[in-house]
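Lab notes, practical 5.
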Amino acid sequence: MSRLAAFRQPIPEIIKRHAGDAAFYWSQWSKARYSFIVNAERLAHIEHLLCAHLDGLTEAADTGWQEAFGNLKRWKGPGETFVCVLLALQHDSQERFTLMWPTLEANAHDCARGFISALAWQQQRSPSPTPWLDHWLKTADSPLLTTVALRASACVGQIPLEHATTASQADSAHVRAAACRTLARHPNNPEAAATLLHLTNNTAPNVAIEAAIGLLHQGGDSATAQQALNALHNAILAALPSLTALKGSKRRNAYRQLRRWLFYWAFYTPIKQREFAVTLEQLPPLLQIEAIGWHGDSAHVDHLIKMMHTPELAPAALAHLELLTGCDAEDLHLTAPIDQAQLDTAQNLPPEYQAMPFPNVAAVTHWWQAQQPIAAATKVLQGKPLEQNQTSLEHCQTLIAIAPRRIARIAQQHCVVISVSA
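Output from the prediction step:
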């Protein structure tokens, strides 16, 4: 073997590192939408690191694939799935999909997110669209493949209405639910709205709930929107009791789903509705805080300040105060000095809040009492009232470009609402 050929041989330790780190950075990239710290610039940096490890695996060819596939068989997680599926798509390899399929199908609840993400990633970043998405939309005889293709097509904005309408009549409830997500991407479309309205009566709960969310995206009449909100509200309350009994990945998946439902219910519920305050008291404390942020009513700031007296909730409550009011707590000296008790508490917080500062509750209370009301009859985001006009649209577009991803996600949803209403 020549020196050059020997130099180009993959080094096993490096390939192993590429495979593990690619799955890790996909996880960080995926979770960034919940972050109060990661903005667009930081997200681009995480994506750059992810791409570097993916490039290393691609350069290692079959050796890189074998290492990534071994991780998938061992861990069966969404990050490992993303890496393997992306390598299979880039290699245009039916053989690789055949090897993966038993693991993907047996662990669909854990693997589906990575599968969808890989397909959407390849579709958005490839010079030429991957034929696999269109192929699975048209010919897939597997509910999992059809579900993945529908949801990936919704992620990248390629939304074939005819495929979604056909899928809405499928035998699989998962396929019908995915069809609802795709139909939701057709705002002000009478055919899509009629199909979604029909599906709100579906006997499969996940289908009815996705149809309700889709109707909210449609921006229809107030009676239909209230019907959808009621369905979503009932589903949230029904899901809460079973959550504490679940463990491991089942609990994580159920909590992620519940959080998603709560986001849309809180976001679309009009302010000043008494039902919101009543339901808030029935939620676990952390979800109360998050729902207030998603809802956007500054009348609930006092509730956030009350939650700051509980150390385990204080960083989240302060973060959502900033979300609503646009204040910079550190610049305004509203944060508490760091001590060991805070560090110990932070270790047990959800990851998105572990790096957040703790509030000086007395200072926060005094500051808020000195503020003028932000708005009496409109939702707010970062201290600005949100209305159906160009000023609010530009405010949200600015936040999408520069704000942390948690705030940018809410701004993006407001952009959708403003655009649909225009």
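Observations recorded by the TA: The chain has a mean pLDDT of 92. The chain is about 70% helix and 0% strand.
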